[in-house]
Amino acid sequence: MAVRVVTNLTGPPKTDSKLAARTIMKRTLVVGLTLAVVLACVFFVLTMPRPLGEDQLPEHSVNLANGELLFWAGGCASCHAATGAEGESLLVLGGGVEIATPFGVFRSPNISPDPQSGIGGWSSLDFVNAMVKGLSPDNRHYYPAFPYPQYQNIQIGDLLDLKAFLDTLPPSSNKVADHSLRFPYSLRAGIGLWKWRYLGRSRSNPSAEGTAQLERGRYLVRGAGHCGACHTPRDQFGGEINERFLAGADSFEVDEAADGASVGRVPNITPHPDGLGGWSESDIAYSLESGFDPDFDSFGGSMVEVQENMARLPAEDRAAIAAYLKSIPAVPSDAP
Amino acid sequence: MKKAVLVTLATVALGATTIVTLAADELAYQDQIEARQSFMHVYRFNLGLLGAMAKGEAPYDAELASAAANNLLAASRMNNRAMWPAGSDMSAAGYEGVTWAKADIWSAGSEIGAKSKALSDALEAMAAVAGDGLAAVRSNMGAVGDGCKGCHEPYRASKD
Hints:
- The complex is a heterodimer of chains A (336) and B (160).
- Chain A is mainly alpha-helical.
- Helices cover 41% and strands 5% of the residues of chain A.
- Chain B is mainly alpha-helical and 160 residues long.
């Protein structure tokens, strides 16, 4: 009754139901706003760049030959040298190679030592953060078209050797245009969410029981070699489906002229009969050396460049890759 | 007028042929595709003889190596243009899963001629020395592989 009196004093009489509706609206607004602020904070925290600090770089004396080995194992030139480059021009990493994907067109950056157009001005820490955290020196997220989800498995000492090797290559002043991506993929903050969802789980820890050769193979396949970037199928957000590791995939490259259809299949390279089941370890190692499969058909398409890079590795590294590929779970090509 | 009638008749005839072809469930270039795929198999077979020696899976046999290399060279010098008619690529209707040849083979700026020549040159070098010892076979396999990949990289789609 007292309430009724107070209400009468402050304005026109209101019914109980109107008052209740107002309270609900007010509450909804407060809850909604709080939720929005909380979500914004969560989004901010999740998408926040988390670079490594200077103190996380180990003491290291540079081994240039090892840096060169990683350069070929990683196939840097396949994306960062000009399309069709051969011989010495594979060492000019001016970028600009276009990769058409369902998310839009990515353009590989200039990673030559040119201080303006390339990465000549980068510190070792900048380089390591790009490779393992997918972060630029000014803390922007890189798109995972740059295979840092695999490169994060490379040891920091090896990355420092690779950086030192890249520093010895010829500078290129080539300026590369930005990626042309569709909305919402054009929003870089979203990559922070992607990293939160996928980056941690694609980290590969060495297993205790493997032989030294298997561990070396695993390290090359899951790290610098980034075989899974093409041979493992991806989900709708471009994250690798770990249960189908190396079981073959539709190429993520699309043909814009053919309504964005995938340019083809990337083969299953697990030990399943759909994959390398019929290949011996020496078949695999020899194919990486020569480009011939066991039927003496030659490799074709993008695998040619990969194979020609692998041919530059020491024979024992190709043997290690072969041994590891024969040791992983056999997965059939078609999704169950 | 006469010309127009002829063109019309020709078109009708062509249409009828197409219908007959489709009714027989046979692709227009089935023969050509089978021929060139068989031809590739001949390459693979002979390369396999050399490759088994290079890999150490078979003992080196000078006579066999020389024969295989000369077969490959002879194959590369055949004029097989008739096996490769324009329109017999994987993007043509009905050809997906039948051929993996890309239409770029026939497009302007195609380097198919130069690439074939490069393979033939590599095989000539191999044939000249294949009987001289295992080291010679081994050291020429890379260049022969480059010859194969010269076309397979740009002009053949991945088969899975």
